[in-house]
Every structure is written in C-alpha cells, then in structure tokens.
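Hello,

Our lab assistant flagged a job as stuck in the queue for most of the afternoon. It eventually completed. Since we weren't sure the result was trustworthy after the delay, we are filing this so someone can double-check. Below is the sequence as submitted and the structure that was eventually returned. Let us know if re-running is recommended.
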Amino acid sequence: IKKATIYSSLYYRATSNEMSRFEFLWNQENCNAYGFGWAWDIAGGESNSGRTAQTYVNLAHCYSYGLELIIDYQLFPWWKANISSNFFGQEEDGTDLNYSKVKSFNWNSKLSSTMTLPKEWTIQLSGQYYAPTKNIQGHNDARYFADIAIKKNILDKQGTISLNFRDIFDTKRSDGYTYSNEYISFNHRKPYSQSVSLSFSYRFGQTANMKKKMKQQQDSNELYTGGEAE
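-- returned structure --
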C-alpha cells in the first residue's frame, strides 16, 4: 500500500522428537522412568537424591500452525518503522513422559523504529515482546525488553561512531513454573543484560560504486542493537 509494505505467510509444522526442556526430582525411580538410569551412579546416586534435575528430552510429537506478519511503514521520509509478529498455536505431546498433551496459543512481536536525521545522525529504538507460554510441565511468564542505538557518520562517511544501550529499562528476565507430582518450582533467570558500548569503525579504500552500494544497504538494514531471536 502507499507507505507500507506487508509480508505475510501461513504455516503448519509437524515435528517428530522435538527437543524440549524437562525437569524432574532426582531419585532412582524417576531416573529409570525417564531413561536416565545409566546416569544414576555417575551423577552421585543416593547422595544427590531429592535434588531437581534439568535436562532436555525428545517429545514424541509437536505441532505448530500460525501466521507470520511483517510490516514496513514509512511514517516520514526520515522515519521508518518495522514490526514483525508471529501468532501461532502449538500442541505438545508429553504422554510418553507421563504428562498430558498441551495445546496453547502463543505470539511474539518485535518493533524497530529508525530515524535518519540531518548531519548523518541515525537513531534506532527497538523492542521485543514474548507472550506467556505453556508447556507439558507448566508455563513461562511474558518477556520483554528494549534497546536503543545512536550512530553518526564522520570523516566524509568513511568512519562511523555508534553508541548502543541494551535493555534500557532492565526488564530482560525469564520466569517459569514447573509442576510435577512431587513438587512445584519457580525459576527466575535475570542475566546481566544492561550494557552501554561505544564503538568506532573506519572503512578503507572505498570506491564511488562501493559507497553507493553501502548507502543502499544502510537504508534497507537495521542498525544493530543486540536484540534476541528466541
């Protein structure tokens, strides 16, 4: 349409033996039931009985279906926004592990806003959001964070200074709940995600054609801000 370009796709995926995170109470009965009897003595046997074990297992089947949507919008000649979203339903079969089948609807989205200002300044703000999800053992809370980057071309566009501030609001974390027959657990993970970096790059030996090509690429590519692709 006039100021926007829209890309979309519908999909259906069937996966056999999908790798999925799995947690259980470490005792000999569970080790044998979940196929880890061989590791009982190696991992300490009875001395570690009662602890929780975290691993990855192959589920029998996983099905997902949904819509991927990408919108590029030119708000003004100097301001461009991009939003990409994925809306999908998913079914995991945990019956081989004595859990039930779980059906869920999930979505995530990423927004990128790029402003090209006078005197070779560029500012980009990006944010990502992952909605709460369910799995065969519990659920995970929503995750979200934002980054900002400022770039200026100098030295006749041969050099670039970039300032990046990652996880502006210090919100990057993951919280999840696991429910089993023996216990309920809450997992909180908070990485040291906030950081500020200043960098300088210089391009040597560029011809006029190379400069033109790089300008076209810069106009179409996002300024790197250190965001996730999970």
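-- support follow-up --
The delay was a queue issue, not a problem with the job. The result is valid. Residues 223-230 have pLDDT under 50 and may be disordered. The chain is about 10% helix and 55% strand.
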